[in-house]
Structure formats: structure tokens, C-alpha cells
Amino acid sequence: MSKINISLNGDFLKKLDYYSGQEEMTRSKFIREAVVEYITIKEKEKLLLEKRKKIGEAIKLFRNMGAKNKGWDGVKELNKWRDRVK
């Protein structure tokens, strides 16, 4: 595990000590878990944005397909094929 140095103002250091104490953790462990949680949230947000973009692209594709196929009745077409099988 690598070590790093960070600078914090006095008030923030007091808060860090308070909350890490409440969780019965060392400063290092508290900061480590906070960073892991933050990065996990950011990565989930990124995946969600990518998913929303793909959904938007799929909606656009289906709308374009629908515009090109105006007048086509999918149910009627299925019934026609089903009648051929009977």
C-alpha cells in the first residue's frame, strides 16, 4: 500500500477526527474508505450516463424506423404469416 500526504485546515481536521472517532477508525482508514466510496459513486454515475445515452440512441433508431415504415401494420403482417402456417 502506498502512502500519501494531504493538507487539511484545522477545522476540517477536527471534523475528520470527530467522524473517524465515531466510526472507530483511524484517520487513514476513514479517508481510505471515503475515497473508495466517492470513486465508486462516480463510476456508477458514469455508467448510468452511458446507459442513458445508449437508451436515447435506441429510441432515436426506433423512431427513425417507425418514420420509414409508416402504414406498415405489424399485427396484420403476423396474422398473415400465422394464417399461412395453418
Task: Break the fold down into its secondary structure elements and pairings.
Elements: H1 10-22, H2 27-68, H3 74-85
Helix pairs in contact: 1-2
Question: What does this protein look like?
Answer:
With 86 residues, the chain is mainly alpha-helical. The protein has one domain (10-85). It is built from 3 helices and no strands.
Would you kindly provide a brief summary of this structure?
The chain has 86 residues and is an all-alpha fold. It has helices at 10-22, 27-68, 74-85.
What descriptors fit this protein?
86 residues; mainly alpha
* Averaged pLDDT: 93
Tell me the number of helical segments per DSSP (H or I, 4 or more residues long): 3
Question: How many distinct folded domains?
Answer: 1
Main beta-sheet annotation: none
Bin the strand percentage.
under 5%
Shape: rod-shaped
Helix content: over 70%
SSE string, helix = H, strand = E? HHH
Q: Could you list the spans in which at least 5 consecutive residues all have pLDDT below 50?
A: none
- Rounded radius of gyration (Å): 28 Å
Compute the separation of the termini in Å.
70 Å
Task: Name the structural class.
Answer: mainly alpha
Number of E strands: 0
